[in-house]
């Protein structure tokens, strides 16, 4: 069953977005991914966990935290 991972990530510029997309594409078992630049939100769907995606983003020096859908704010892991 596919999981939906939603994370808050600081997106400064197009280079940041390119690095994030390149890193996410390397994750095994993903079905879809999207970057919402207005909300600074990364969404990954597939057989992945929040922790897996966060680790991949940390490798490209990006800090990510879980997205709290109830009030659209951050929730610490």
Automatic annotation (TrEMBL):
Q: Which SUPFAM superfamilies match?
A: HMA, heavy metal-associated domain
Instruction: Tell me the ranges covered by the HMA domain, including all copies.
Output: 2-65
**Cited Pfam families:** HMA (PF00403)
Task: Please tell me whether the keyword Metal-binding is annotated for this protein.
Answer: yes
PROSITE patterns assigned:
HMA_2
One molecular function GO term is: metal ion binding
Superkingdom of the source species: Eukaryota
- Which keywords does UniProt give here? Metal-binding
Q: What is this protein called?
A: HMA domain-containing protein
